[in-house]
Design goal:
Layout lengths: L1 E4 L3 E2 L5 E7 L8 E7 L6 E7 L4 E4 L7 E6 L4 E6 L8 E7 L11 E2 L3 E5 L1
Parallel strand pairs: 2-11
Antiparallel strand pairs: 1-3, 3-8, 4-5, 4-9, 5-6, 7-8, 9-10, 9-11
């Protein structure tokens, strides 16, 4: 089970950190990732982390603004979001067990946390 938190309403230029706490061995996988979905849009990959190497991949739209990280001791995935823009407004989801930024490959999903940038 994955449980996101940290979503909020912020002004453009602000920052937020999203958290995704896992229960059990949900993070016993190769890839974990953050996705987002705005109303009327398809779910899109934002950032992904490959546990074996620590490698990361980001969507071009968030590169150099967002950072994905993981705390093994807390079994928690994070997404640090800086320089937020109105177009970052969406429901954000964490996921595990897939590959890269392709949502259809993931089999474990959180319930989502809303980020609104005005």
């Amino acid at each position: 089970q994955l449980v996101e938190s940290g979503g909020d309403s912020v002004q453009a230029g602000g920052s937020l950190t999203l958290s995704c706490e896992a229960s059990g061995d949900t993070y016993s996988t190769n890839w974990v990732a953050w996705f987002r979905q705005a109303p009327g849009n398809e779910r899109e990959g934002v950032a992904a982390l490959y546990f074996r190497t620590g490698g990361t991949v980001y969507a071009e739209s968030v590169a150099h603004r967002f950072t994905i990280s993981h705390d093994h001791a807390k079994n928690t995935l994070y997404l640090q979001m800086n320089s937020l823009k109105p177009e970052d407004t969406a429901m954000y989801y964490c996921a595990a067990g897939g590959s890269g930024l392709t949502p259809r490959t993931y089999n474990s999903w959180g319930q989502g946390t809303q980020v609104t940038v005005s």
